[in-house]
Records
---
Amino acid sequence: MPRPMSNQPTPDLEKSTPSSDAAAVPKGPGFVPTFLYYFSGTALVTTFLAVKILGVGLDTGIPNQFGLLFGLAGGLVGTYFNQGKVLEIPFTSRKTFLRDLQQVLDEKGYSQNAEASDDEVRVYQRPTLRQLFSGKIYVYLADKRAFISSRAAHLRWLEKRLQ
């Protein structure tokens, strides 16, 4: 018995969509891993400091409460600034967009890493020591759209400067 025809396109015939274009750039950790990272680090340090400063043991529960409270705040702040995101920016001229992007990134000390970049994705980074605390910026150019992946704080700054 023949199978009914499906209206779904085959994978090799699918057209480029924003979600498939955005997949070309590495996204980085999202909300949950970033929150857990900053929450756990802040909670542990705060709990340890509360034990030392207040002079009470963990069995009282007070240091744990401080750890949870500050861990929640640290997790939310860390996630706001550092979770990985992808920004889509439309442009009319590829050459003009790349020139404007380079000028904006130069202000923050970013330059293109030719060794890490390939034909599709451009990688921008700061010098070695500054890169430890800022990460990389990945740029993929599609038809009249740029997909930029980096930390949320960088993307908010780039969005204001490029639009």
Note: Residues 1-18 have pLDDT under 50 and may be disordered.
---
Amino acid sequence: MRQLKKSMAIALTALLSWAWATDIVAQTFEYPESPEGFNAIAVKYQGNRPTISDFATAYLNDSKDQEFFSTVHSEWLRYQQKKPLKGKASIIVDTKNGYMRYEVRNPEENDTTIMEMCFWNCADGKHKMVCANTVWRMDGDYGSAEYTGARFFLYDNATKKMRWLLPEDIGALYDGDGLSVFFLPRKGKDIKVSAAGAGNRWDEVLEWDGYQFSSKEEP
């Protein structure tokens, strides 16, 4: 019995130490400012909190003047109105896991473009991290265009707005000497990265810690 009480005391001490350390981080962590000239995006929603559909609507409304996102925006409206999508386009919305995916295939040109979004609840209970990511695959390899890549936003629960954050400011920049491609999690919290360099390609992971990301090699 004495040994059991001792073990319980040790476990309780460890738990309190963890809680104390977590609280200290929550009180001291500050997100960086947005790049100059960026206007925060209002996120409209009904209910207690926004869903991935609300974040997607806000992002696509803000991005619809760009050629690629104009197409995605149009298809998103059709999806919301329960109308058939055009061509080889498809949309998946996983509200439970906070994930959406737009995909369009062009068999004639052997290419596929994917735009996906997800979000993470921040450990401070005051923010959410939102990411919109676009991947273009052509002839079995990844391509780069002005619309490809990942864009990160910090959503403030109090203001109901999200503002742009640079990937390098939150540990989410993986910069090899070739094209590195992100894949957002539909389940789980970490971003998978197909990294490239010196003519090779390998897998990495950007691990979410409740506030930002850190890179680790996938086992």
Note: Residues 9-26 have pLDDT under 50 and may be disordered.
